[in-house]
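Exercise 3.2. Students should predict the tertiary structure of the chain below and write it as structure tokens, then compare their answer with the key that follows.

Predict this chain's 3D structure.
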Amino acid sequence: MEFGPVVVAFHDRVLRPRPWTMIQASWAADLSPGLPPGPVLEVCAGAGHIGQAAAALTGRHLVQVDVEPQACALAEANARANLMATRVDVRCAELEDALDADERFPLILADPPYVPQGEVLAYPDDPDLAINGGPDGLRMLRRCVRLAGAHVQPHGAVLLQLLGAAQVEGLAPELHDAGLDVVDVRATDDRRAVAHLRPRTDERGTRDTAGSGTSWCE
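Answer key:
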């Protein structure tokens, strides 16, 4: 299927691309000119469509992370099909293992599983691994926030996809601990939203890491 500037192949082991999620890639393109140089990081990348659309629109290199081997294979194939293989680095690993401790990115994208476990059966065509966010839907979102806080550049940006704006409020403790502030939330309805986060800075414009942590414990 066509997804913005790229063409995406997918199968039933990954989440079918949703056209509305193009908002994340488009927002990344809008933010890109004001961000430091460097590659985009996409975690929970699935078939790779959101990050690769963002890379095509911004001209930036891209690092994509997913734990599902078949999703990683699809992301690599889609990068080749869209003539982007030389600037897309697909890493098949758990979030906590995918990045070096000193890697920093100007722009981080995440579309993690965020459906509460009790609602998963309402989506029988979607793979459980791709949508099941645990009892409150926030399990993977918390991990993504912690990773973003540890790896975003001081004047960078994070675009996080969630199950509506209400989930942003549920992440308040994790956002505080990660040193991230909410800049804006764009919601298409009460179950579809993208939050723009930025690193907290002090009055001198340097990264304020007070209260931020890098523990991966749930």
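Discussion points: The two ends are 37 Å apart (CA to CA). The first strand starts at residue 2 and ends at 3.
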